[in-house]
Hints:
The chain is α+β, with helices and mostly antiparallel strands. It has helices at 19-22, 30-40, 57-63, 72-83, 123-127, 138-143, 147-157, 179-185, 196-213, 257-266, 268-279, 288-295, 300-305, and strands spanning 4-6, 14-18, 52-56, 87-92, 95-100, 102-108, 113-118, 133-137, 172-178, 218-223, 228-229, 232-233, 235-242. The protein is built from 13 helices and 13 strands.
Amino acid sequence: MAKTKQVVPTADDYVFQAHQISRASYMMPVMQRRLIYVAMAQSRPDDDELMTVEMTVGDIVRALELNDDGKQYEAIREACRGLRSHVLELDTPDGWVIFGWVDKARYIKSRDVLQLRISDELKPYVHQLQKAFSVLTIADIARLQGKYALRIFELVMSTRGMAGTGGNKPGQWFYDAQFDELRTMFRIAPHEYKVTGNFRNRVIDDPVREINEADLGIRIECDYEHFRHGRRLLGVRLKCKLLKDAVRNVTPATKGEETIELLKQKHPSQWEEYLSEERKQPPMFGDAEAWAIKKAESRLEEFAAKRPKK
Length: 310
């Protein structure tokens, strides 16, 4: 029987998202994607299994900074209904795989809680991330209202590791996308936005403008000349730059300074491993040490348990 994990989601939660998910073929309404983000944020690579996540509706509303106008219950129900029908399509070395996002969505009225269970098919992409993942915060996700803006944000963040490498300046990188590729990833039908100008405006330019105005600490510019072949325009280069003035601080895991110091002192090699990995990329949401603490969060209790008794 699957275990249930009672959680209190907040805007400060973060998601380790595998690049394969960011670049997969899928599209869904923003509210559905937000619920998936919230549920995924409660899982960590060191967890033994994907558990059913239980959250109060009020906590979900606050975490996603939604208007508490009484309409959120129906909006959440509609989103959960949609999550049962939307699928994710991934390309693998052996072919492709298609599966659903959630195995269960249930609302318990007596306790005013929503239970969500991420599909077991997603486990390899949630728990076995290795180094191919992006860090996305719930606060940033909550600021994006458009479905294309959310998908473009996922895509550019999946290549943030290019910042400062391969000829890129520190804090700068890019993501190249053919229009046909975007149509596949965003599930855009052949009859939609057939005119290139409409496709640019609705799928790229407007969503990029939304990202730039959302105060996410990133600026994106669209370079179409890189993909211009005569009169034909076939794609776009999304040129990204971190904004120094917009970098946020990341609060260390709330396990107490004493426990964090234990991790550093009693297990220095593990700590240095986390820290060195974070220093390889320019941090977007705070300093490397803060993110190393975040990454080690799920293991801090284990380290604390090994502390010699006085």
